[in-house]
Design brief:
The structure holds two protein chains of two kinds.
Chain A: H1 2-37, E1 43-50, H2 51-55, H3 58-69, E2 73-80, H4 82-90, E3 96-99, H5 102-110, E4 114-129, H6 142-154, E5 160-162, H7 168-179, H8 184-187, E6 193-195, H9 200-209, E7 214-217, H10 218-225, E8 233-236, E9 244-252, H11 264-275, H12 277-285, H13 288-291, E10 297-298, H14 300-304, H15 309-319
Parallel strand pairs in A: 1-2, 1-3, 5-6
Antiparallel strand pairs in A: 3-9, 4-7, 4-8, 4-9, 4-10
Chain B: H1 3-17, H2 21-54, H3 60-69, H4 75-86, H5 101-126, H6 129-137, H7 142-152, H8 154-170, H9 173-179, H10 189-199, H11 202-228
Helix pairs in contact in B: 1-11, 2-5, 2-7, 2-8, 3-5, 4-9, 5-8, 5-9, 6-7, 8-11, 10-11
Classes of the chains: A alpha/beta, B mainly alpha.
Chain lengths: 354, 229
């Protein structure tokens, strides 16, 4: 009897081998499709953000913490340059942004895409280059350093690697070049100015390969330097207003008809979370163990209580919009969130790059 | 949400017909780099294919099988391998080739070698072997006979070259990883499309995409036409 069964099974298998195979494939595809599209009880909050925050691993820590507090929200980050992060949000593909370019943030608000801007953290840009520093920029100010690199580059003795991806770092770099009398669209036609069009880690890797110089935020530099991925060293580090790097969070404006689908409530929860005492303290500690210093300094108390009045003044000078963190007409159902207004006398106003 | 797409296409065609210098420099650079890759790869693939197609030796089946299998070699893996080899800390770093146009050509040449070898070997094998014997009886050397056979298989060789160019021209992984997508230096059609889409310059991406498609489409039409003959 057993043999008969085996015989029949084998016979059927042979006859219907093709059909069985197809059935298996179809059901596998079906299960996979169902699993991918299965209705989730979690709300997905999409944050488009900068590569520097993402690559340092900070966002992974925030993600875990936030989902502990709000188990029904699933945060996903899209790491891009600031320019692209803003574009993504404008297209309606993100619920909020976490970026570092005050000029474009202001435009984002003014064009009606964002509300409730809140300054979260700050650090400084540095200029990094080969250890032997053939151009000799060590200890100079950023603009003088760029001028020297330009002169050396024109003589064929140096290479500058530019992000070239419309990121916040790229915007800072362009502003510094403009301050030194250079224009990125002209510079990129030269032999010594290489426009990479990529994220910070990739740009650092290229500068490292070609023994070139580049502008970088301190956090991304340490993230690549400490594990030994690059042997570039920090040559210009002013830690002052001229290299200040300020990160802000902005919720997408649900009043904008193109963005009416955004998850505003969840975005506001995340912004409140970012400026909470607990997370601000976490920021102060993040990276200290691994890199020996804070990668992203918390900005909320510095601003609200002027715990460091010099830094507070610098942030107000460079990252405030007409004396406020967020213009009054761009505040919407902000709940407990408070925004800082100050009277500021402009000391330094960056020229806009375009 | 079709507005931006239509706008993008209109702007793309404006870029195409206004002979935008940036668009055309990228196109010419792509053609040049992939062309160089095909020339290099053909130079070493022809003798390999002639040996594989005409000689019998131990391990021949394995070699042929390997070349066949590597036709689908993932470009990003090849890019990674080359990056590690040619990086400053890698064994071939002293050449300083990483992030140069020549490096992309070399990478693409390696990428397309399996296509060239496999296709040309098949073409050679399809030629009647009596031809080789005939050539030999007429007093020609082994190499002269091989050349005669390759000439006879020229249709298949051209087909292989076109298919190889197609693959090199349309690949992204190698160009991105060992070229570095530097403006004015190693930025190609595929890497520029990837970058500009990321940067949000959609019309520019569409313009480049239209050119890439047009070239690849023409090539494939030609390949199909040749194959039918």
């Amino acid at each position: 009897m057993r043999y008969v069964f085996t015989y029949i099974t084998v016979k059927c298998m042979k006859k219907y081998y093709g059909i069985i195979l197809i059935a298996i494939i179809i059901s596998a595809v079906g299960i996979a499709a169902w699993a991918l599209n299965a209705p989730q009880d979690k709300v997905i909050l999409t944050v488009s953000t900068t590569t520097s925050l993402y690559e340092t691993g900070l966002l992974d820590v925030l993600d875990t913490k936030f989902e502990e507090c709000y188990p029904n929200i699933n945060v996903t980050f899209i790491p891009q340059g600031t320019g692209l992060a803003i574009e993504t949000a404008k297209r309606g593909d993100a619920d909020m942004i976490l970026v570092h370019d005050a000029v474009r943030e202001e435009a984002f608000l003014a064009e009606g895409y964002g509300v409730n801007r809140k300054i979260v953290a700050y650090n400084y840009f540095v200029i990094v280059g080969p250890e032997d520093d053939p151009v000799g920029i060590e200890g100079l100010g950023p603009v003088e350093a760029l001028l020297k690199i330009k002169a050396a580059g024109e003589a064929g003795d140096a290479v500058w690697v530019s992000r070239g991806d419309d990121s916040g770092t790229h915007a800072m770099e362009k502003r510094l070049w403009i301050a030194g009398g250079g224009d990125a669209t002209e510079l990129r036609e030269t032999d010594w100015y290489w426009e990479r069009g990529s994220g910070m880690t990739a740009t650092l890797a290229m500068a490292n390969e070609k023994r070139g110089y580049t502008l970088c935020d301190k956090g991304s530099y340490l993230k690549n330097f400490v594990p030994g991925n690059i042997d570039l060293v920090v040559l210009v580090e002013t830690g002052s207003i001229d290299t200040l790097n300020v990160y802000s969070a902005i919720a997408c404006d649900p009043q904008n008809p193109d963005l009416s689908h955004v998850k505003f409530d969840e975005a506001m929860k995340f912004i409140n979370f970012l400026v909470s005492d607990e997370i601000q303290e976490l920021l102060a500690d993040f990276g200290v163990e691994e890199y020996g210093l804070t990668l992203f300094n918390p900005a909320v108390r510095v601003l609200a209580e002027s715990t460091d009045s010099t830094v507070a003044e610098w942030i107000k000078q460079t990252a405030f919009m007409d004396g406020t963190e967020c213009p009054t007409n761009k505040r919407y159902n902000a709940g407990d969130l408070s925004f800082l207004n100050v009277e500021i006398i402009p000391l330094l106003k960056w020229e806009t790059s375009d | 949400m079709t507005g931006p797409i239509i706008d993008g296409i209109i702007k793309a065609f404006q870029l195409l017909f206004s002979l935008d210098p940036e668009v055309y420099s990228i196109v010419l650079r792509s053609l040049y780099i992939s062309g160089l890759a095909v020339v290099m790869a053909t130079l070493w693939s022809l003798p390999i294919a002639a040996i594989l197609g005409l000689k019998n030796f131990r391990g021949k089946r394995f070699l042929r099988g390997s070349f066949n299998a590597f036709i689908g070699f993932p470009t990003v893996v090849l890019g990674l391998l080359l990056f590690l080899l040619f990086s400053r800390s890698g064994p071939l770093g002293s050449f300083g080739l990483l992030f140069t146009p020549l490096m992309i050509s070399i990478g693409q040449a390696i990428l397309i070698t399996p296509i060239l070898v496999s296709f040309i070997t098949s073409a050679v094998e399809a030629i009647d072997l009596s031809l080789r014997d005939l050539a030999r009886t007429l007093g020609s050397t082994e190499i002269q006979a091989s050349i005669a056979i390759l000439r006879e298989a020229s249709g298949g060789v051209i087909l292989a070259i076109l298919a190889a160019f197609n693959r090199a021209f349309a690949e992204l992984g190698v160009a991105m990883m060992v070229g570095g997508n530097i403006y004015g230096r190693t930025r190609l059609l595929t890497t520029a499309i990837a970058l500009e889409t990321n940067r949000g310059d959609i019309p520019f991406s569409i313009a480049l995409g239209v050119i890439l498609l047009a070239i690849v489409y023409t090539l494939n039409i030609t390949i199909n036409y040749l194959r039918r003959r």
